[in-house]
Amino acid sequence: MPTSRPWSGSIWAGVLGFALGGFFDGILLHQILQWHHLLSLVPGAGDMGRQVLWDGLFHALMYGLAALGLWGMWRAGRRGAMPTGARLGGLLLLGFGGWHLVDSVLSHWMLGIHRIRVDAAYPLAWDLLWLGVFGLAPMALGWALARRGGAPPGRGGPMLAALALLAVGLGGWALRPAETPLTVAVFGPGQDPRRIEADLAALGARIVWAGPDLDVVVVDIDPARRWNLYGRGAWVVGGAGLPAGCLGWSRDGLSA
Questions:
Q1: Of 22, 47, 120, 149, which has the highest C-beta tally within 10 A?
Q2: What is the spatial distance between Cα 214 and Cα 192, in angstroms, rounded to a whole number?
Q3: pLDDT for 221-255, tens place per residue?
Q4: Given strand 206-210, what is the order of strands in its sheet?
Q5: CATH no. for residue 223?
Q6: Is the bond preceding residue 243 a cis peptide, omega within 30 degrees?
Q7: Residues 237, 228: contact at Cβ < 8 Å?
Q8: 186 phi/psi in degrees, rounded to 5
Q9: Omega cis (within 30) before 152
Q10: Can you name the residues that pair with 206 across neighbouring β-strands?
């Protein structure tokens, strides 16, 4: 039986739905279709290394929000206040659609950092279509389901476990190793480019592309030696573990 703050579980379900919407957007549009990256239209952020870096940070943020939502729902479940049934599904859909609404208004139109299809002849049409199908429609359905109520709040253990597996699965896809012989490495600011170049040569890594200060490099290196880049000052290495998939090679290649 719910004790206090029965609405808290609803809020956290919405947060989880919001994160799932971000995962859907990032995995489908950034990685699979590659219609845009997070900062596709930001002047000075067009090189491939920084684009995939910011995509990786975006997925890390969604992972954090998903974990926060699951934690809040678990706490609500301990008090018997976790929404269940149709109400839970509705709240998740509200959060999922809410992500696309926020992304459209903030990222596409106010900030202009990207559009759904940056190469489209009529980008606004794609923005509106995407917002309608994946934003407004899920929010309308979610609102209807949430108002129905249905089963009273409870602990929701099995449902929470299923949602946790879904979030981990989506995050695992976003962080999967790239299926490519090329590796993206991000080095911390202030490091000597000459030392970075010497370290790469010592590891037998051939530089394919590099930022002006070698802070971001794309190298052809034996996959078994990718881990050694961490010992040479790299902060994140695509293809060598978390978050490898976010920093994998893009089909855009050096043309970005």
A1: 22
A2: 9
A3: 887 888 888 888 888 776 544 343 444 433 333 33
A4: 206-210, 216-220, 182-187, 234-237
A5: 3.30.70
A6: yes
A7: no
A8: -110, 120
A9: no
A10: 220
Cα 216 to Cα 50: distance, rounded to the nearest angstrom: 7
Is this structure's pTM higher than 0.90? Answer: no
Residue 111 lies in a domain: yes
Distance CA 159, CA 8 (A): 17
In a domain? residue 23: yes
| Structural domain boundaries, residue 222 | 182-240
Residue whose pair of structure tokens reads 């976010």 in the numeric block: 246
Q: In the 8-state DSSP scheme, what is residue 206?
A: E
Do residue 144 and residue 199 come from a single domain? no
Residue 192: how many other CB atoms lie within 10 Å: 13
Residue 223 DSSP code: G
Q: Is there a domain that residue 32 lies in?
A: yes
Token digits of residue 131: 């917002």
The token pair at 95 is 């959060």
Give the separation between CA 14 and CA 89, rounded to whole angstroms.
10
User: Percent of the chain beyond pLDDT 70?
Assistant: 78
- CA dist 193 to 27, 87, 129, 199, 226, Å? 33, 55, 45, 10, 19
Domain count, the chain: 2
